[in-house]
Protein: Nucleoside phosphorylase domain-containing protein
Organism: Liquidambar formosana
Amino acid sequence: MINTLKSTRLLTSSVSPSPSSLLPLSLSLREMAVLKVMCLFLYALMMHDAQKANGAFSAETQKMMDEANKNGPYVGLVIPNLFEMNPLLQSPSFTSSNFTIDFAGIISKKSQSYIVFPLSLCLLVFSSSHGCFQGRRFRFGTIAEKEVILVMTGLGMINAGITTQLLLSLFNIEGVVHYGTAGNLNPSLRIGDVTIPQYWSHTGLWNWQRYGQGPDDELALEEDGDYTREIGYLKFANYTANVTNCINYDNLLNNAWYQPEEIFPIDGTPEEREHIFWVPVDTRYFEISKRLEGLELERCLNETTCLSKTPKVATVLRGTSASIFVANIAYRSFIYGKFNVTALDMESASVALICHQQRVPFIAFRALSGGVSAESSDAAKFISLAAKNSVTVVVEFIKQLSANQALIKSFPPEE
């Protein structure tokens, strides 16, 4: 070991000095020995993961996936959280096949149903090993004789996007149905109502303008086509509070301009970006969903705890998402006034964007659990009722979907 290190020192000292070549000279023999062991360990780890990557799935898991896909195509049900999934698992309309495939960062010795997700790739996605061991479970079953796969995403846009892409990449999916609860921005709707937006946007992508510049000033990188002023902006000075005896006032936070997403459709040119802000749901799915507007929904949690009015199903123009929980009334009012948005959540736009790029039919159902109505203070109390109502609508939609395959085929394919 010492001879090797001496040779390394001689070789290093014989070349022109640079910051990288001078670094070993500052280490002791003991430190370099430790460094070499660490390098060998990292090299072995990389080679181990490379071997895993060459065969992404175990033979048993691949066989299970192949068998599962023979029973497809499936409708993928993408669900944010367990409290929204459990009402469906408990619904008499859902028949479980008692078959699951778990997606994880390691192979479980207790189960042969785990998909191997190479650690090196996982680290690139999650930036830490912690996320690599938070798996995804794909549950198989039927609703009204329609084959379905249920998968929970977890909170936020990134979780929803990763889970949706996994679903579409691994399984034979004919369409995606997303459901859950959402905040309400529309004063004409109430807690427990289930909304079906025709369009979704991501309102968490901003170009935050420097102080001193305004609407007439070009944004940074706007000239290159990276950013735009076409969608609109939030002026923070308009929401300054407790200002007295002052006609003109400003805010150092200045303006935040909303931006469209960069997308790369599966049928587009690789690395040639497109932009989109309002992502449409599938036209055929939306037409079928209009038939649900008279559906009877639950009003009461129990015999003594009820909403003042029976909830309803409503098709609406727009919903929006961002990885931000918005309890702020001023911002809720701004978003509603600016974009005419009804449902506000943290996942739907991500699912919509993935499906749009993959050209897979998509629709989302969001039950309102809080917002601008007089009952909004009861959001926590009635959130389980809202989740149950969203499941009621989803189940009925799947039934309609199963019964109207001819109608779906009569529509021209989505562009």
In short: The chain has 13 helices and 16 strands.
